[in-house]
Fold this protein.
Amino acid sequence: MAIECSGRAGRTGGPGGPGAPGPDGPPPARVVPLLALACGSSVATVYFAQPLLVTLGERFALDPALVGVIVTLTQLGYAAGLLLLVPLGDLLDRRRLVTGQLGLLALALLGVGLAPGAAALLVALAAVGLLAVVAQTMVATAAALTPPARRGRAVGTVTGGIVTGILLARAASGVLADLAGWRAVYLVSAAFTAVLALLLRRALPAVMRSEGPGGAPSERPGGSGGSYARWVASTVTLFAREPLLRIRGTLALLVFAAFSTLWTGVARPLSDPPWSLSSTAIGAFGLAGAAGALAAGVAGRWNDRGLARRTTGVGLAVLVLSWLPIGLTGRSLWALAAGAVLLDFAVQAVHVTNQTVIHAVRPEAGSRIIGGYMVFYSAGSALGALGSSLAHAAGGWPMVTALGAAFSLAALLLWAATLRTAPPVG
């Protein structure tokens, strides 16, 4: 997607005048690392609740069969934000958008930390999910601030912040909860997010906006009326017209349903006898996500060699097999750790491949395509979270394992069905 400067930005510099950061000059050294930190912190808020589900369910007297709604509402909020808020990054001044959303995210986190009852908790968590999509806007901001020759490194740094945030979220949540109670997790995050908003307000220049659908400069809402609605609708239109986008989106839905089935459901068997683990220990299992970071690099290299379809097949086969050791959680924590490593490796391999393949369909619409794709991701995460709780209530951990394996097998069968399509779908 082409980027152009708004206001007075030109070839001599960014919006601040000659020598200011912009597409033709590197941003200040502190900006990209600060964006990476803010991205990781924002995305982490979506995953804080996973090791705390048992505690939250008891504290707010939630039915065990519905405790997964805590994660489900957060993910549904995130999906709504991807569709409704992320497109604003191509219409409004990103500095104001990023810092404003971070400020509102801090208030939503404060609402979670101070929630007096279940209804207030669930509303605040949905707001957290809605506003956490600011991470996607910050990725686009990093790209817009960096010249093409250095853009890949900048985006890679910021995306690395997202992976790190996901990786550390569960562990940090568990440690803080054990040290100071579950509310401290959200109150500390609220304060940290507010500080990041202030720092970015000072560090970011008035940044760029993108071209609108069809290549014309994007309009500001209210400029000619209805531009925001048309921009959102254009994302839906892209997926309606391109079969590959729908197939890869469905794969994302199934893969992340399996992912969420594990990480939402695993708190229950780990907190119950014979393990009776603390929140810290439960959160530490999230560190198995380090395998996901490794998988992202491997999958990227395979995709560059034209092996996207094979990478997808291998990843989905590993995903199915990962549920064999996961099913032995009641007997061995080592089995769970091994299964979690395999699952996270497989999920990230498929996820990176999906994004590589779909971006190539319409590179000029890359932001809208990735945003639309991430809606499938969030819907799958919400489905897995709710399904995991219902499955555990119905048949315990064996039923949760069966559900996760079913999502994984469905994804593998969908991929196998595409092998006969012409032209190939990635």
Summary: The longest strand covers residues 3-4. Residues 264 and 404 are 11 Å apart (CA to CA).
